[in-house]
Amino acid sequence: MLSNKSFVRKTRHGKVVKVVREHYLRDDIACGALFCPTCDKSRAKLRDTALNIVVIDTNVALHQMDLLENEVMSDVVVLAVVLEEVKNKNLSIYNRLRTVIDNPLRHFFVFSNENHKDTYIKSLPTETPNDRNDRAIRVASQWYQHHLGAAKVLLLTNDNDNRRKAREDGIVAETVDSYVQTLGKPELLDLVARSDAMDVDVEDLRPNKKAVVYGEHKVMSEITAGLHNGRFHQGKLRVNRYNPFEAYVGSESVGEEILIHGRQDMNRAFDGDVVAVELLPQSSWVGSEVGKIADRDDEEEEEQVGLVPASADDAPREFKLEDGKKAAGRPTGRVVGIIKRNWRQYCGSIEPMKMPGGSGGTVQALFVSADRRIPKIRIQTRQIANLIDKRIMVSVDSWEPTSRYPNGHYVRTIGDIGDRATESDVLLIENDINSRPFSEAVLACLPPLPWSFSEEEHLKNHAHLKREDLRHIRIFSVDPPGCRDIDDALHCTPLPDGRFEVGVHIADVTNFVLPNLPLDVEASQRGTSVYMVERRIDMLPKPLTEDICSLRADVERLAFSCIWIMSSEAEIESVRFTKSVIKSCAALSYAEAQARMDDSRMMDGLTTDLRNMNRLAKIMRLRRIERGALTLASPEVKFEIDTETHDPLDVGMYQVREANMMVEEFMLAANMSVAGKILKEFPSCSLLRRHPEPTPQMFEPLLRTAAAVGVNLDISTSKALADSLDLAVGDDPYFNKLIRILATRCMTQAVYFCSGELSYPEYLHYGLAAPLYTHFTSPIRRYADVVVHRLLSAALGLSSLPEQLRDMPHLTSLSDNLNYRHRNAQMAGRASVELHTVIFFKKRPTDEEARIVKIRSNGFIVFIPKFGIEGPVYLVGKEAKGSSGSSNDGMWEVDDEHQIIRSTDGSRTFKVLNTVRIRIEVVEPQPNRQKLQLTLIM
User: Which intervals hold domain RNB (predicted)?
Assistant: First the structure.
């Protein structure tokens, strides 16, 4: 049967054209019920034992996913009209719904109602698209009721009008709340989302109406008009990670970030929301002069204190500061409307409260998120006694202007508060890290185990792939101790004429991860492996990462090799790329490689190769620095972990050896060589990596600190900065490293991008002083490298390039996800370090030397080199306690120019980069929120 759809649209040139589309209708589309006597059962999912066949409307799908994901919900029909509407309105919810649908154990069935002759309906002239879709849902529900006869078909809808019309048509229709009550599991009612916007027929359990706390949000028509005439400005709200009462909105129309300070001016916006902002009068704009350390744990002051930033950069483990002065020049505004919400599920705990008498009743509680950027959330629960000492997950439903807090609902329990595994899980969830086991579909893509190299398969039968046999070459790997996912190996063979053949051999992951299969899709979504202190969350399944692809010693493995001919002065004379088979002779740790190079008694071939390679690397590094590459520093922390309990036994700064730098140098060279090759072949669709040059404003904190200690830094070019950093030396042997750490804080994030998006000068990697750069050397743990391997293979004619990698929009979207996943992995890793630092010092209060890195009006920020810890030391306020317990309160004067804070009586003076002695201990300023406290030993 054929039905025609027609509509008009306007072309780019303004011409209105009529479009007619043919819509085919069928009468053989199955209902999906195993007990149906007439339909094809090959794809059926609705069970014989189903008590109800549940049909859900669009609003239930959009707002009740936490309930739908619970295993109690089964034998559910998702109509095609609902699935399409959800996809158009909320892609995140759509992906969650698809995951449930695709799980065969959940018995969710998609019915193509728009293609069935008995359920397809045409729009009426007076009908809105929403009303037409609601009618389509009722028609399909009625068809199911008649088609399945004795089976009970139930339409779930929280829309009063839709439910009334359904009942008039003889359809059994219920609210989500009333349906869940019939299931006999009262705790499931906690999962039900409630919102005025959803028109729910249940008692409103929110507090009585009271005075408006926040301004009403503008309607979308007014927002659109305001954006058009320049009254409003659109951007994404970023709440300061370390100070929840300040936020920034990046605005192209203003040309710089707009500061939003205080919950009032944030006006119910969450971190990540796309908002409309109105600028305040210029007299209310806030400057960023010397401030004081913000007390991020003081909830009592949240309504009184206006907090403003020291900088817009949420640098890791850097405490954001509260300004004490106002000055014209910093655009400041308030949120007037929400264009797109970014609500997600949040982890945290119930705020301690007096337990109610009786049992089984509904109580209200305040949920405190582990993410300080998120306000407290009011929830209703029937299981408060089971939740009070747990880490739980909560979703947000609504936030009315009359309520100080948003309303939400309980989703699930994660574990006990304070349990290390639970707290680690919280970090993963909060940073959107997928730590779930790989699905059966993904694991089915792996080759049979045990896997071993087959000469017949890889060298003879597939000779057209030109896989080169390099098993005769002395190849070795150098990695951190205990590394099992070895994705790179090296060789350095001296040639008779004094030159060297040097090779970087990278695990040939794409030989096993084929485009568009479930394994590839999963890896592209995960984006990167995540390294926590006590465990690793893999991008690829362990059989690949630790066995099949890992370039372990004494086993034959497939590789993608980059091989140079180099002069004795490390000049690259030629480069070639080849698929290969290798057999590593040794898997060394950095310490083992360094010990070999340092031991003059060792003269074997492997040690000689290491020494030759190290000599070449030093020349290459020096040449790179001469081009302007920066040698920066970061406080990398290393823990010694108990193998049984996974608790930290010791903590200290990570030691970098010459062996580390040697490997790094050749990985950088391989990445640069590959970048040039793929860009030449695919100028508009290569995946590259750039590091934008920092703005002069980003360098201001560094320049102020350096000037205060008599160091002149030239930031005009990366070369000038590198040279002046080399000259920044002092009596303290740690002085130069501190300056480099502060310089690192000024840098922008390096990002992946599609070459067709930008012009060539924008490809620059500022930190490496490299005009071209990409990631090729770690495909086991980074999906970007998998993409680059495919690009390189296609550039060499060894394979065809997957069609989606020729599509610029697809590659741009992929780059965005990789950047998001990379940043989240970094944040999760740093949060894991913070968690284990607290665990380590909880029973080990320690005194240690620290360096002052920032001066503020009520104290200073210190860095403790031995442990890589940074934090605030208060001289004024409730936390200003010396080791004796006496308060240090008093009058202090700040000399911002010279970065000095001194007591008014002249008895104490502290200057930036000076050494002080600090006590490190763990405190709990708020229930369930332990933190590391640093206090000055007077």
Answer: 467-798
